[in-house]
Design brief:
The complex is a heterodimer of chains A (20) and B (191). With 20 residues, chain A is mainly α. Chain A is built from one helix and no strands. The chains are: A mainly alpha (20), B alpha+beta (191).
Chain lengths: 20, 191
């Protein structure tokens, strides 16, 4: 149940509108 | 908080994290120079923060960024840090312009992504020190005697940074660093 995210996923959403 | 994140379409993190900034003003006490910037608990809020703050390589010498789990202060004396230690990466001066920002971002991603698997709970936070004599990045863990946890974290961290087998990183217990004389710190583990 731990929320884990890998590097590629985190980098992929860096410039999504919700992140800016 | 989890429901709010999901309603907003954001990706919740396992932990809430606090970003701290330290600027070395010699006219003030050390603790007065340490400021909490903000806290966040979603991936989107992490990126919104990251894109609004200065890159580490552009900070003045003597400055630090720290990212710690909410409730843990970025100092040895904190109850959750005092029995722990840190995996320390020391950079050469020229690496400030080539690898520092990438190393620091990868460090942050390891933390918020809980990339240390079952030992992620051992992680307290990370610190980057910008210094004239050489910058340093470290991941702090809560229990220096937990060999299995500490070495797993170090192994995963080294892999994520892409450091070659020829580059050694060392783990120092805070208790040893606090009592060291000169610049020689006692290294408990090496990878």
């Amino acid at each position: 149940g731990k929320k884990q995210y890998d590097r590629e996923f985190l980098l992929d959403i860096q410039f999504m509108p919700a992140c800016i | 908080e989890l429901l709010q994140a999901e309603v907003l379409g954001k990706h919740p993190l396992q932990n809430r994290w606090a970003l701290w900034f330290f600027k070395n003003d010699k006219s003030k006490m050390w603790q007065a120079n340490l400021r909490l910037v903000t806290k966040f608990s979603t991936v989107e809020d992490f990126w919104a923060l990251y894109s609004h703050i200065q890159l580490a390589s552009k900070l003045a010498a003597g400055c630090d960024y720290s990212l710690f789990k909410d409730g843990i202060e970025p100092m040895w004396e904190d109850n959750q840090n005092k029995r722990g230690g840190r995996w320390l990466i020391t950079l050469a001066r020229q690496q400030r312009h080539t690898e520092l920002d990438r190393f620091w971002l990868d460090t942050l991603l390891c933390l918020i992504g809980e990339m240390f698997d079952e030992y992620s709970d051992e992680v307290c936070g990370a610190v980057i020190n910008i210094r004239t004599k050489g910058d340093k990045i470290a991941i702090w863990t809560r229990e220096a005697e937990n060999r299995e946890g500490v070495t797993h974290i170090g192994r995963v961290y080294k892999e994520h940074l892409g450091l070659s087998q020829k580059v050694a990183i060392g783990y120092q217990a805070h208790a040893d660093t606090a009592t060291k004389s000169g610049c020689l710190g006692k290294t408990k583990f090496v990878l």
